[in-house]
Amino acid sequence: MKHFYTKMGMLVALSLGTVIYSGNTLPTTATTKHLTQQSNRTSTNDIYEQAVPSIFAIYLDSRTNKSSVSGTGFAIKAQNELLIVTNEHVVSSKNQIFYLINKNGEKYKGRVIYSNKDDDIAFLKLSQKPNIPGLEIDANINKFSIGTSVYTIGNPYDFLFSMSNGIISNLNENVVFEDGDFDELLIQTTINVNPGNSGGPLLNEDGEVIGIVSSMLEDSNGMSFAVPAKTIEKNIKKFNGETF
Amino acid sequence: MKHFYTKMGMLVALSLGTVIYSGNTLPTTATTKHLTQQSNRTSTNDIYEQAVPSIFAIYLDSRTNKSSVSGTGFAIKAQNELLIVTNEHVVSSKNQIFYLINKNGEKYKGRVIYSNKDDDIAFLKLSQKPNIPGLEIDANINKFSIGTSVYTIGNPYDFLFSMSNGIISNLNENVVFEDGDFDELLIQTTINVNPGNSGGPLLNEDGEVIGIVSSMLEDSNGMSFAVPAKTIEKNIKKFNGETF
Amino acid sequence: MKHFYTKMGMLVALSLGTVIYSGNTLPTTATTKHLTQQSNRTSTNDIYEQAVPSIFAIYLDSRTNKSSVSGTGFAIKAQNELLIVTNEHVVSSKNQIFYLINKNGEKYKGRVIYSNKDDDIAFLKLSQKPNIPGLEIDANINKFSIGTSVYTIGNPYDFLFSMSNGIISNLNENVVFEDGDFDELLIQTTINVNPGNSGGPLLNEDGEVIGIVSSMLEDSNGMSFAVPAKTIEKNIKKFNGETF
């Protein structure tokens, strides 16, 4: 059965549409490593430290220190290939080459190798393979997930590799927006997201990717949305030419 | 002793004032049931699953699939009667009949049988009795509650049966607003609420109703307010013609 | 190494620039005391109850019941002196004398004895010594703190002694803003703060001060900033005429 939603506000994409050259942007230098969980109190930090090496800031311009971030991307492993996943709207410019940096300040060229505007998803391949395992995906979201804690790491307003948290607020099925956009499943969260967060991973308490942080409801207080992980998997199959 | 507050911003009610006919709104279909708590990590989901069958979206128009939600209501049991509690401002139109749906998509007519504008509280009676127990009320709030976790389930911007959370930020006693409004006790929370949340239950960690989510401070970041549960109890007594 | 950030939005100070005489403001009367932690569920309330006696609302005008709060301050003990710490921008008027009240409604005169505009920090001395221990400082913040829970108590929009919470979102090193402002370390949190929160303590889960809540990113969703506790310590040494 299809469900229709009236959208009172507007969903706004979270990339920075215009690149403004004002000031210099360099990443925070910090070594990151996998941590053994020491106590309950450090668990959210563990999620951060384990995930952040696989997360990137995506720029339209090679002069990453002079331009604003376009959005966020994250590495996953698909059939022994390291793919960078992001929103299609983060890399929707005419460019085919983007510039990615990680929290250690290492810079990579990334080429768009697949994009699906309907699902707002794109894959990039890096010019050099970084020594990172990539994030694990957990596509098994279900209605019992409402209320569970979720996290994202992204680059809101050029504050690179910032963490935000919230809960899953709703799992909206078969959403139809007034502009015709359709989503089979749209994960709604209470995470406060901002321009630059687009394309970042929505992480569960095990640090697994359950979605891609994509948009917020304009003028709302804390209503943000993520493309579910099963849409990543569907598009990986499509990219690999498999039936799905 | 009376206390007076200067209200710098404006408290705005959280119902959608104007019904806009644009698109179709249907509830998410999902079976809900009482769950046994399995582990600490599922507890917030337990609060959701246990409460949501007793929560309703309230519409001014029978064509609930074509109109926007006016607010939220929730069922409680008062002297073996099932009452729907909501804010007075959610049902302040000239209508006496409203249209309520639950998360299963079941539709009910609701008649306003009591309303108190000063306390911003109203009771509705459903045309048919749904097979739900109703939520428990815990009116025993005190200053030691500041900091404790709270939750609401409501219908922000037509995203039906969405959960949001926060902490009790303050318990404001004897609040006088510039427009003359007076509240003996106003529960202040950090929950991000939106139009459509009005009339929803403020739940504690046991899933008990401790208030009615009613308003937010305009232009504030995350300052929302709830009518305390003891005001529900006071009005139930008033409704029943008892002294109080 | 220096890092530069492009600031897309504007950082806005959280004090109320203009004192508006509209209505009366009196503190909530409530006795507060140190509590023994009873269970995990009351821990956030414990942080509140233990900290709030050392926290003050700061007014420009002696008629605190007729004016709006300028910001928040908190007591610390430095070399057996009780100092009130706040942001410089909270007490940047020409006044040297400010009026402080605590949650019990006790009123004090406070004199600015030290201020550092670059670090946005000021110290006040009270005319009478209140019988409070003052808050403990923990300046030992590091990158493993990202994700940990933080709290503040302040006076947003004249709702006195309100608590808000969030996580440490980022630890931004060597931040240079477009207006030339420089911060060696800027603690970024997800706490929703509002005008009146400026100068309030950023507390960790042990109720220790790890920073001073100072600003939010204008137009952002939930991006707020705090001066780190080591800047308090640096300025205490400077105030005491020691080398640092």
From TrEMBL, chains A, B, C:
Short name of one Pfam family: Trypsin_2
GO BP: proteolysis
Top-level taxon of origin: Bacteria
Keywords from the UniProt entry: Hydrolase, Plasmid, Protease, Serine protease
Gene Ontology molecular function: serine-type endopeptidase activity
Name of the protein this chain belongs to: Trypsin-like serine protease
